[in-house]
Amino acid sequence: MSPAATAAWIGVGSNLDGPAARVRAAFDALATIPATDLVAASPLYGSAPMGPADQPDYVNAVVQLDTALDPHALLDALQRLEAEAGRDRGGERWGPRVLDLDLLLFGDRRIDDARLRVPHPGIAERVFVLRPLADMAPDLEVPGLGRVDELLDRVPGGGLWRLEATGA
């Protein structure tokens, strides 16, 4: 990737149709985004659902991309991958989903417009985002909020478990 590339951190989650396999397939799909390289992927974690309790547990991970795309073009690419995986964006908020790709961080930028908020809202309260981020980059600065490891120390760790490499 060129020197103009920006590090972007993506939250990956699924709780339908073989969620661990869906998350792993998302890693491969993310690597196909034009002008973008997949740098690293975190271990997979299981987590209790954040929304309605009458849904399956989630599998979550985080990936680091280096991209020459602007943040909105990257968001478009993420939403296209979700749609290709069968995601229905009209579903229940925090309800079950086949694939969820969230743009968590885009370099050191802060973005707040009608389509995109970066850092992702709620990042500082979500152990299923902070734990995988801390596995990869504990010293990473979340603009306006602090370092990942410090944010992780402030959230309860319950409801999250690391999955074995062989998957769930």
Walkthrough of the structure:
- The model has no long low-confidence stretch (mean pLDDT 91).
- The protein has one domain (6-162): 7,8-Dihydro-6-hydroxymethylpterin-pyrophosphokinase HPPK (Alpha-Beta Plaits), CATH 3.30.70.560.
- The chain has helices at residues 19-30, 71-84, 127-136, 148-153; strands at 6-14, 36-41, 45-47, 58-67, 100-106, 111-112, 117-118, 141-142, 146-147, 160-162.
- The protein is 25% helix and 27% strand.
- The strands form three sheets. Strands 1, 2, 3, 4, 5 and 10 form a six-stranded antiparallel beta sheet that branches. The chain has a two-stranded antiparallel ribbon with strand order 6-7. The protein has a two-stranded antiparallel sheet with strand order 8-9.
- It is α+β, with helices and mostly antiparallel strands and 168 residues long.
- It starts with 5 loop residues before the first strand and ends in a 6-residue tail after the last strand.
- It contains four helices and ten strands; from the N terminus they run E-H-E-E-E-H-E-E-E-H-E-E-H-E.
